[in-house]
Amino acid sequence: MQANPYLPIRKVAVIGAGVMGAAIAAHLTNAGIPVRLLDIVLPDQKDRNFLAKAGIEKALKARPAAFMSRKNAALITPGNLEDNLGDIKDCDWVIEAVLEKLEVKQDLWAKVEKVAKKTAIISSNSSGIPMQMQLEGRSDDFKARFIGAHFFNPPRYLHLLELIPTPATKPEVVEALSEFGRTALGKGIVVANDVPGFVANRIGVYGIVRAMRHMDEAGLTPAQVDALTGPVAGRAKSATFRTADLSGLDIISHVAADLNKYSGDDEDFTLPQYFQDMVGKGILGDKSGSGFFKKTKDEKGKTQILGLDLKSGEYTGEGKAKSKLAESIKGKPLAERLEALYTAEGPEGDFMRASLNDGFWYAAKMAGYVSGSLADIDNAMKWGFGWEVGPFETMDILGVQRVIAEIEKSGMTLPPLLQSMKDSGAERFYESSAITTPSGEKAEYQAPYLILTDLKKDGAKVIKKKAGASIVDIGDGVLLVEWHAKMNALGEDQLRMVQEAHKQVQALGYAGLVVANQGENFSAGANLPQILSMAQDDDWDELDEVVKEFQKTTTSLRYSPHPCVVAPHNLALGGGCEFTLYGDVAVAGAELYMGLVEVGVGLIPGGGGTAEMLTRFTDQLQGNQPLLPAVQRAFELIGTAKVSTSAQEARELGLLRDSDHIVMNANLRIEEAKRQVLALAPSYVQPQMRTDIPVMGEDAVAAVKSAVYGMRQAGYVTDYDMVVTEQLARVLSGGVGRNRGQTVSTQHLLDLEREAFLTLAGKKGTQQRIQHMLTTGKPLRN
Questions:
Q1: In a 3-state reduction of DSSP, which class is residue 665?
Q2: CA-based angle 772:773:778, to the nearest 5?
Q3: Is this prediction's pTM over 0.70?
Q4: Which residues belong to any copy of the 3-hydroxyacyl-CoA dehydrogenase NAD binding domain (predicted)?
Q5: What domains appear along the chain, each with residue ranges and CATH number?
Q6: Strands 478-483, 592-595: parallel, antiparallel or unpaired by DSSP?
């Protein structure tokens, strides 16, 4: 097979250091890619690189964070288009993120063509201007390497990358960016047709415009609409108007204007007058500090969300609103929530039904035009706008024939796709042999990565199942333990299935084990209600056994006779963190919020976390270096409940090792974890528990007490924090009666952990903290 001439991509130039360009540059550095960031020269600035440097600073200050580690900013070299355009000559990819004006882009490409190397991919991040229009005057060679590569804001967090080839774009360019985007940048790739708005913005902006119209008709406010169109409807937390603020009202205005210019007569993208007035006044959303919503601080310094009164133009306290309809269905399965929203009476129901029907109608109308694939349209809305299910998947849930009847009842003419569905009588787009898209494609959904639910459709792949966990054969001689409880809290089901999986690996001759899942989070930690109940009932022998069992299970991932790989993602807290720590290898999703947070509920890590972090940090000491830095580092990590904001930061904190793997695309974790098991298996030797861990003894307790006392005097810790950290210090010391330099075993540290855990669980202050966390979801500062 011939190598792709446009790979590998080792260095990238980003032209345009505004909010989007700087954020794209930041995300490239998250993948370890050096970036040349260029912008124009401001005549009134002495620093000719002022705009590029300002872009980097804004990216460093961005919230949510654009960089996975602040250290990544060092990979960006700022410059300007007058002095440094020639520096792009060694870049493998040149990305444009300048003003959404056709003439500006055309002028830039004329300059870029003179200096970019002949194997460089050239792309535009335009959110609406067709790619073909930007190529006027360019050579055939340039056109062959040119493609739209449209990121969504913020690029680090939104999964979608739309690739928009022109008729002249070489297939190798599409293949190269698809591969690089999917693996290096962690993106979900949708190949869109070169039409105004492409896929996600074409359908998403239409939905926003129509939602605004229906809001006015129903007499609702932006906050009320967001309460209905957010998570309760299977949509992103940013819902409708908060999404507009995040995207930038000016961007939406530009896209809507372009779509009005190029779309058909029945596709009205005219934004309400109040929206146009806001843009005219520079009220552009988050980038300008205010939009439909505005963050402020009240007299006590507490963050307050204000909402814009569209009639008065003033910000009021109506930044958040509760919906009776939304509250009544919160927590129910998505299908039930969608059914309730679609059939509800009153203004809220009228709004939801009208908005959903408009979205269904338009998605069906765009099928075959923006993309020949229904799955690509669904994925674009899921990955670009944060929907749980796309428009065609939603119609499948509600019943296609009912949706068609509702659309006809509203007076809209059915587009060809819906007419063909009506004629066939089919209730679902997917899994329906009768239905093809307008381009003739069979309407089947095939994910571009392994999905556990698909594997489990074949009952033979499920080795064993309980309510909270399953053992699944993922092929090639590898078993996987999947947790599927609420927040993947760790209780009896989860522990038993890991233990059972070890037995199955040995009994059936499997190569090894993966612990992973495709839920929202890897695990939010141990089963707190169970711990609280046992402590309040004085079931100390039973709680002791529970903690022993937890330790036995976490440590089994390291001390079993076969390789065990753990693949965490999103939340990996408390016990979820401890399971990750003990894997032979961790294959972590790049977005990883990992930490030992037990002190927040008045406990210390009792599943091996304290023992592992002390051992890990002690092992990293050089030569005869004193033990105190290792103890201090473990104490700071655990005692302050530090949580990483990314997998990179988890590595910096020591929660991930250099030998662990970070996967930018979390959907590829399980496949990579499987590869790691298969790589380890042929020469795997069962590790033995350590017996040579040096400890400081009582000196460690004294050092920690001194530090905590200072923190208490400064008001950083509470009285009960001191009680908890004293127990933590005793474990980190190696136990009472130990002297500096003595060695202990892993099992000894585990026993100390368990003793400290049980001691704290019996205290009123800890039980108050656990109860408060269970009731409010927030830590108690007692």
A1: coil
A2: 105
A3: yes
A4: 11-194
A5: 12-191 (3.40.50.720), 200-424 (1.10.1040.50), 451-597+644-686 (3.90.226.10), 600-642+688-782 (no CATH)
A6: unpaired
